[in-house]
From TrEMBL:
Pathway: tRNA modification; 5-methoxycarbonylmethyl-2-thiouridine-tRNA biosynthesis. One of its GO terms (biological process) is tRNA wobble position uridine thiolation. Residues 68-254 form the tRNA(Ile)-lysidine/2-thiocytidine synthase N-terminal domain. It comes from Zygosaccharomyces rouxii (strain ATCC 2623 / CBS 732 / NBRC 1130 / NCYC 568 / NRRL Y-229). It is an enzyme of class 2 (transferase). The lineage of its organism: Eukaryota, Fungi, Dikarya, Ascomycota, Saccharomycotina. This is Cytoplasmic tRNA 2-thiolation protein 1. Pfam families: ATP_bind_3, zn-ribbon_14. Belongs to the TtcA family. CTU1/NCS6/ATPBD3 subfamily. HAMAP family: CTU1. Plays a central role in 2-thiolation of mcm(5)S(2)U at tRNA wobble positions of tRNA(Lys), tRNA(Glu) and tRNA(Gln). Directly binds tRNAs and probably acts by catalyzing adenylation of tRNAs, an intermediate required for 2-thiolation. It is unclear whether it acts as a sulfurtransferase that transfers sulfur from thiocarboxylated URM1 onto the uridine of tRNAs at wobble position. Prior mcm(5) tRNA modification by the elongator complex is required for 2-thiolation. May also be involved in protein urmylation. Gene3D superfamilies: HUPs (3.40.50.620). The gene is NCS6. ATP binds at residues 72-74, 78, 104, 182, 187.
């Protein structure tokens, strides 16, 4: 059986009923949705993809009218689609938010310099302001120098700590207290799996939160793509012809995450819904209540002129070295920097043992609670 799609009077090609979009039943299906294997047309795919993100935003009260929101923009597909979709939804549903692109330049030649060129094009394409914060200006180190000094194995540990603080500092500088990131459903499911496999109960509890805010930070972070599949983000970017950068970082991603990712991909092939199912499992986990911790009484937040922020806890809230918020005496970034400085001195004396001190420091830091 076949017929002419009513919505397409120009293209009078006959379409078999079995080829029709399962949602509108009038256009030819060209996409099999990775999330539920539904066969749908391009317009319906755009509509469901955007509407699901809008529902996530509304159901979780992610924004309030007049809020200034920074989009953590790397030039990669996730953050490029995030910037595009947030701008579109803000106009379509009148959220009344002010969007800014915030990029971190880690100093990785051949990777970040090229991806930042993409963000600069996105700035023009989407008409959004852009702020770039570099590790060089904040820490006087680039990731390339850190890897040369500490080795490639701990690159993501350093990069993760520095990026978190850089995003906080960048946002504070712009007077923004909300950063949205392009973390998607696959990332979240991987994190849940990793924490289960490692028995990391403390992290497991927080791993499915759509909004997070660490005790030492005035900046909240949220993930509007929490329920969006990576494959759908790629399809959306492809069909919308978005300008994004697809090269991987030159330094290996965290090895254990890579293993969890492989496991997730294999599971997804057998059961596509497993990504969402793992997230739902994480959301519904009920952990034993913890013993209450003694905490200081928070006072008022103060943003200094250099962009650093003070929360004013009664004690132990500011890093003694950089003055930035920290629940420890010295913040995690300063501890890493101290290790790097010591290591740089040692490298000139004894290159063979140079990474051992840093590896030990990394292990010590990982065991600390921040
Ligand atoms: S892969 Fe690691 S080193 Fe590269 S940008 Fe990501 S966190 Fe940084
Ligand atoms: Zn359709
Ligand atoms: Zn510090």
């Amino acid at each position: 059986m076949s017929f002419v799609p009513p919505s397409d009077p120009v293209n009078k090609k006959q379409v078999k009923v079995s080829q029709l979009c399962e949602l509108c039943r009038c256009r030819k299906a060209i996409i099999r949705r990775p999330k539920n294997l539904q066969k749908i047309c391009k317009s319906c795919f755009f509509h469901v993809f955007e509407t699901e993100i809008h529902n996530t935003i509304v159901n979780n009260n992610l924004f309030y009218r007049g809020e200034k929101v920074a989009i953590g923009a790397s030039g990669g597909k996730d953050s490029t689609v995030l910037a595009y979709v947030l701008k579109l939804l803000n106009d379509r549903y009148d959220y009344g938010i002010e969007l800014v692109l915030l990029s971190i330049d880690e100093g990785i030649v051949g990777y970040r310099d090229d991806s930042l060129a993409t963000v600069k094009r996105n700035q023009v394409q989407y008409g959004l302001p852009l702020e770039i914060i570099s590790y060089r200006e904040l820490y006087d180190w680039t990731m390339d120098e850190i890897v040369a000094c500490a080795g490639v194995r701990s690159s993501c540990t350093y990069c993760g700590v520095f990026r978190r603080q850089a995003l906080d500092r960048g946002s504070s500088k712009l007077g923004i207290s909300h950063v949205v990131t392009g973390h998607n459903a696959d990332d979240m499911a991987e994190t849940v799996l990793m924490n289960i496999l490692r028995g990391d109960v403390a992290r497991l509890e927080k791993s499915t939160a759509i909004i997070t805010q660490s005790s030492g930070s005035p900046i909240k972070r949220s993930k509007p793509f929490k329920y969006s599949y990576q494959k759908e983000i790629v399809l959306y970017a492809h069909y919308k012809k978005l300008d994004y950068f697809s090269t991987e970082c030159s330094y290996a991603p965290e090895a254990f995450r890579g293993t969890a990712r492989e496991l997730m991909k294999n599971l997804e092939m057998v059961r596509p819904s497993c990504i969402i199912d793992i997230i739902h499992s994480g959301e519904n986990l009920v952990l034993k209540p913890k013993k209450p911790k003694r905490t200081g009484t928070p006072k008022q937040m103060e943003v200094r002129t250099d962009g650093s922020v003070s929360l004013g806890f009664v004690d132990g809230n500011k890093c003694e070295k950089c003055g930035y918020l920290s629940s420890n005496r010295i913040c995690k970034a300063c501890m890493l920097l101290e290790g790097l400085e010591n290591n740089r001195a040692k490298v000139t004396l004894d290159n063979d043992t140079s990474t051992q001190g840093t590896a030990r420091l990394t292990r010590t830091l990982e065991s600390l609670k921040f």
